[in-house]
Amino acid sequence: GAVVSQHPSWVICKSGTSVKIECRSLDFQATTMFWYRQFPKQSLMLMATSNEGSKATYEQGVEKDKFLINHASLTLSTLTVTSAHPEDSSFYICSAPGGGSMGQPQHFGDGTRLSIL
Amino acid sequence: GENVEQHPSTLSVQEGDSAVIKCTYSDSASNYFPWYKQELGKGPQLIIDIRSNVGEKKDQRIAVTLNKTAKHFSLHITETQPEDSAVYFCAATPGAGKSTFGDGTTLTVKP
Fold it and tell me: Does A44 contact B89 at a Cβ distance shorter than 8 Å?
């Protein structure tokens, strides 16, 4: 079945560091991928929609310059948290619609737990 | 935009009992309703879904019902087992649009 791989699974770094998270669709092409942030015991908060070959679409209140998204190929999207601070610590999850089409089941990565010291 | 409400937020059942989680949505254009299970430290995994042209769907111990008129859909788990313990999310998706997720239900199955 469709698999989405997300790396790294866990990152601890110092304040001010930039962190890159990768999301790959392993056996299907994804023109669209989604990036979520999840706080403990809370729901998935959509941050942005990553579009292959074009600019990402950010949700209201999400800083574009803080959370840089690049979707350079049909199987890879990256999220870079720039100059990360403790308040950026969270669980970040990516997903891709099955078959690359919207309105399909989403296939999620296993998430990246980011801890900023 | 779409608004999805999910209840209850927590649910505790005895092993072997049934569990029911309910969701309501607001956008009549929504026509795809998946349910996801999220285990601790993992990403959500699809467990069952239903489209608006179907009223009920079953897969072994799991079933989903949809009432389009009332704009609500429910997840039913029968003969619960400890490994069913997890957080469950419902979602509503309009056409080719983005899914809107409920706030999640933490299910605990006591052995």
Answer: yes
